[in-house]
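User: Earlier you gave me the apo prediction for this protein. Now I'd like the version with S-adenosylmethionine bound, so I can compare the two side by side. Same sequence as before, with the ligand SMILES added.
Assistant: Got it. Here's the input I'm using:
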Amino acid sequence: MATTGTEKFSLLSVVFDEMAKNYENGIGGAQKDIVRALLSHSKENYPINSTSIIHDNACGPAVATSEILNQGITPPPQIFATDYAQGMIDITNSYKERRAWDTVTVQQMDGQALSFEDEKFTHSISSLGVFLFPDEKKGLSEMYRTLKPGGWIGVSSWKDVRWPTAAIAAYEKLFPDAKEPMILPVPKNWMDPENCERNLLQAGFREVKSEIIHCINRQENKEIGASAFAGFLRQVSPTVKAWDEETREEYMAYYSKLVEDMFSPSADGSGVELTLYAIVTSGRK
Ligand SMILES: C[S@@+](CC[C@H](N)C(=O)[O-])C[C@H]1O[C@@H](n2cnc3c(N)ncnc32)[C@H](O)[C@@H]1O
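And here is the structure of the complex with S-adenosylmethionine:
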């Protein structure tokens, strides 16, 4: 049997472009739970107020930006929302227009080469962002460079997003003699709090702390939940992309069934839910 495992590799912006439309519903609001946990760290250590200048780095569909503005701080702080995928930028721009976010600037930008000047931000947030960059050290050093002395950094990563376990189980079941491991973009050096703290300390941050939190993927039914995870897997796994259509569909059917079985009915009866585990890490410059 092939040794199955996970590898980090470069996800091109086109992958996130394709994912943009499905991303928000795909993890069923878990991303908002994670940002709220990050913001509660900020509240304890360096609260956001009207004079804050915030970077939402690898913003996706404006996840941290929305949560910050939902806090109702008056007047709202300045926020710079950046992402390298045009699809995510388009969604963020549409929210800016629809919700009249006058203090938000939206820019397409690679987090590994920020075009901001040194020491611009009071708060620098990258939720489920910088850990996915091909060169996350460069990403963190750019966050350090653009943060004011004493400024606050908050990042998050996955401890266990659940679908990789199902992907590997399906691979082992259907291809017991495979010579190659299944390739999945799961960055191993961000999967426990000690590593996450080390990553920030090595980038020069101090007062670094990290905790595992749980967050909930809430879906209308388990089929919708599984189909979103199947969509992600099709986009991010080179192993899946390399198969012919018949093999891919056979695998996807088996994988989807495993994912469906992970969901359970939600307590309030509104649908189904799946608990995911993330790590939130914060520090100061
Ligand atoms: C998992 S999503 C997270 C989105 C959002 N921050 C959230 O909290 O849900 C990862 C995001 O990182 C962006 N991203 C990945 N690599 C990037 C890079 N090198 N520079 C800028 N954005 C990047 C992707 O386009 C995508 O929007």
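For your comparison, keep in mind: Residues 16, 31, 35, 58-60, 63, 83-85, 88, 110-112, 127-129, 132-133 surround S-adenosylmethionine (CB under 6 Å).
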